Amino acid sequence: MLRRLLDGTSVELMMYSDVKNSSSIKSKLMSGKLDCAVFDRHLVMEVFQVMVAAQMAYQRYSTGKAACRTMHAEVLYCLSAMKSISNVFATFGLDGSQRELLIVVINPHKTIVDEIQRSIDGKEVSDIERSLSTGYDEARIKEVYKISDTELHAGPLLDAVLSRMASKSFL
After folding, report:
1. Candidates 3.30.70.240, 3.40.50.11270, 3.40.630.30, 3.30.2380.10; correct CATH number of 2-167?
2. What is the reported pLDDT for 93?
3. Residue 18: how many CB atoms within 10 A of its CB?
4. How far is CA 117 from CA 65, 72, 90, 102, in A?
5. Which terminus of the chain is more solvent-facing, meaning fewer CB atoms within 10 Å of its CB: N or C?
6. Domain locations in the chain?
7. Rounded to an integer, what distance in angstroms lies between the CA atom of residue 128 and that of residue 3?
8. In Å, how far from its chain's centre is CA 69?
């Protein structure tokens, strides 16, 4: 699924289920052989949430205000409400056992996308939006973002998550 940031920069989203080699993917990510962000898809409710994180990361990276060394790592960082980079990777990143992955590539080149697709031993999900909207772990999201049931009386869970993502830099 190809999307665009505000300035027109392309963002490729891919999702896989039944992944059998997530530990191999993690090794390739850590060694720099794969240039992408890989998420635990159960912490993502909508494509919009990922696009907000991608826009924030692109902006921070472009202005020299990034907390991480790569733009794709910054996407993971911006998706979270945490300031500790190691906690962000432990919570949102790949631990090597996930069987469902959400992948983001900013400014994708065909060779990078092809390498990612060749590297993953799993089934590509065609309807990412539907899969995200029905397959997230609400209890875990509320725990990770520290959202109470009382807060949800004022608005939907996605709004609370986006607020946490946006306000991290002010805390």
Report:
1. 3.30.2380.10
2. 86
3. 10
4. 31, 17, 24, 12
5. C
6. 2-167
7. 12
8. 16
